[in-house]
Specification:
A hairpin with a 5-residue loop joins β9 and β10. This protein has 5 helices and 10 strands, in the order ββαβααββαβαββββ. The protein has an 8-stranded mixed sheet, with helices on both faces. Strands 2-8 form a two-stranded antiparallel sheet. Helix content is about 25%, strand content about 30%. The mean pLDDT is about 90. It has a single domain, classed as 3-Layer(aba) Sandwich (Dihydrofolate Reductase, subunit A). The protein has about 190 residues and is of the alpha/beta class. α1 runs parallel beside α3. Pfam families: RibD_C (PF01872). One of its GO terms (biological process) is riboflavin biosynthetic process. InterPro entries: DHFR-like_dom_sf, RibDG_C, Riboflavin_Biosynth_HTPR.
Length: about 190
């Protein structure tokens, strides 16, 4: 069975973005994208909600063509283009290409079916509401929480509406030069 792994960036006070969805205060170290590329080496699918998908899809398909981009940007762009895209959305109806799946109904069955297909890991990027919903359904196997050394005070919360305790087992951690810490957890339902 494929693992569904949530990868999320958050402030110390557990906000994934400011009130307007801005990420300006979450300043990434140069090696942060290298780290993400190590995760994509073990994955062949990306899962996101509509907003995160549209953000990813507005930049990454052509990012490798920009002048003076890093080797990690090129690598991630190529991975994104080849990865299966799984989009959870009630409003998106038309897919851009054949390697995109849009799920709007029977999310639990759809994700379970995709996880049971042969392949590598599935990475859930961003999409805090999707992360919360899938945790409630016991569908997320692991989390990488990248914690930034900043307190936002308000914004879009990482965990909201979780009604029961969900235990996490720490598997590893990595520290970056700008002070971010990536913490790898196994979800124990």
């Amino acid at each position: 069975m494929r693992k569904l792994i949530s990868v999320v960036h958050t402030s110390l006070d557990q906000f994934v973005a400011g009130e307007n969805g801005d990420f300006d205060e979450l300043v990434q170290s140069p090696e942060n994208l290298d780290f993400i590329c190590n995760l994509t080496d073990k994955a062949d699918a990306v899962l996101a909600g509509r907003v995160s998908y549209e953000m990813l899809d507005s930049y990454w398909p052509t990012a490798h063509q920009s002048p003076d981009v890093s080797a990690s940007v090129v690598k991630y762009s190529h991975w994104y283009n080849s990865a299966e895209k799984i989009v959870l959305s009630n409003t998106l109806s038309e897919k851009k290409n054949d390697n995109t799946v849009i799920l709007s109904k029977n999310i639990e069955d759809g994700i379970t079916r995709i996880k049971n297909k042969t392949g590598k890991d599935i990475l859930l990027f961003g999409s805090p509401s999707i992360c919360q919903a899938l945790m409630k359904l016991n569908l997320i196997d692991e989390c990488w929480i990248i914690l930034y050394p900043v307190v936002l005070g308000n914004g879009i919360p990482l965990f909201k509406g979780i009604e029961k305790a969900i235990k996490l087992k720490c598997l590893a951690s990595t520290r970056f030069t700008m002070g971010e810490i990536a913490i790898h957890y196994k979800v124990e339902y």
